[in-house]
Write a structure and sequence with these properties.
Blueprint: E1 9-11, E2 20-23, H1 34-49, E3 54-59, H2 64-75, E4 79-85, H3 92-99, E5 103-107, H4 109-113, H5 115-123, E6 129-131, H6 139-146, E7 156-163, H7 167-179, E8 184-189, H8 196-202, E9 211-213, H9 227-240, H10 249-261, E10 270-274
Parallel strand pairs: 2-10, 3-4, 3-6, 4-5, 7-8, 7-10, 8-9
Antiparallel strand pairs: 1-2
This protein binds pyridoxal-5'-phosphate.
């Protein structure tokens, strides 16, 4: 995985969005999606360096992280196992996981809560097994995400990203700090009560004076959506040729659109939005698009 990646920056077409550029991390790979690739980079390198050839991880039945781990492991000759939250399920994402050779272990919600315990019970005696937390959360993931900042135009004034756990956002803020760029990080939490992201980011980096949280764009909570959001996703894809998903980047671009319409940024301030991928999430919400 130690390759240099050159991800394009794409300027948006609509005149009212002329100051906005999209960092197309969704183009890194169709299945090792965007930020999941960046989060996995040092996890994979660490596992390979220490001779652990089996990644054991955790996620829900529609987890972008699970697909990314399955694909990345297959590509690097590693085994992968996932504890999947909830009862046995079949869907597009789990199908991809199985195609990439991942072993799926469906786990009831109570047992799932104790991830370390699960790992110890099932793989504690396996010297090749490597624990990878849900979503890849942890310091290696933060370091991988921080690298994105070195690929940005130096005059980036506002950097936008969506947040689930906040690990990606923590990495971006750390990167901004380390490069000394004069950039503000705007974070759009996709969960309700997104203020918790601030404390999560503070676990990994300082510089919180450069952080702007926009907590009003969760649409009811994680994986919740509304006709307003799905219609926006359709309009945006048709106008700009960029797909977004209802769980993460749809909410992110909706927030940006709203802030732009409020005239929150000067026309000469460069805005870069990180497209973190996750487009498979559309398949988990097909029926929500019937309003289009
Ligand atoms: C997982 C994911 C996120 C959330 O990343 P965190 O580091 O957990 O905040 C954002 N966007 C997409 C597309 C994702 O798949």
């Amino acid at each position: 995985m130690s390759v240099t990646i050159h991800i394009p920056l794409q300027q948006l077409k609509a005149p009212e969005r002329a100051s906005v550029w999209v960092k197309r991390d969704d183009m890194i790979d169709p299945y090792i999606s965007g930020n999941k690739w960046r989060k996995l980079k040092y996890i994979l390198e660490g596992a390979l360096a220490s001779g652990r050839r089996h990644l054991v991880t955790f996620g829900g039945a529609y987890s972008n992280h699970l697909v990314a781990v399955a694909a990345a492991c297959a590509r690097n000759g590693l085994r992968s196992t996932a504890f999947v939250r909830g009862e046995m399920a079949e869907n597009e994402m789990l199908l991809l996981c199985r195609l990439y050779g991942m072993e799926l272990r469906f786990t009831d919600r109570l047992a799932y809560k104790d991830k370390r315990g699960l790992f110890e019970r099932h793989f504690g005696g396996d010297a090749e097994a490597c624990f990878v937390d849900e979503g890849g959360a942890g310091t290696p993931a933060v370091l991988g995400c921080a690298e994105l900042v070195t690929e940005l135009p130096p005059d980036t004034r506002h950097l936008f990203c969506a947040a689930g756990t906040g690990t990606t956002a923590a990495g971006l803020l750390k990167g901004i700090r380390e490069t000394g760029m004069d950039t503000l990080l705007h974070v759009v939490p996709v969960l309700k009560g997104g203020e918790f992201i601030r404390a999560e980011i503070a676990r990994y980096t300082d510089g919180l004076d450069r952080l702007v949280l926009h907590t009003a764009y969760h649409f009811g909570g994680y994986a919740r959506t509304s006709p307003e959001l799905t219609q926006f996703i359709g309009r945006f894809a048709a106008a700009e040729g960029i797909l977004t998903d209802p769980v993460y980047t749809g909410k992110l671009f909706f927030a940006l659109e709203d802030l732009l319409s409020q005239g929150r940024f000067a026309a000469d301030e460069k805005i870069v939005v990180v497209h973190t991928g996750g487009l498979l999430g559309i398949w988990g919400m097909k029926e929500k698009f019937s309003v289009l």
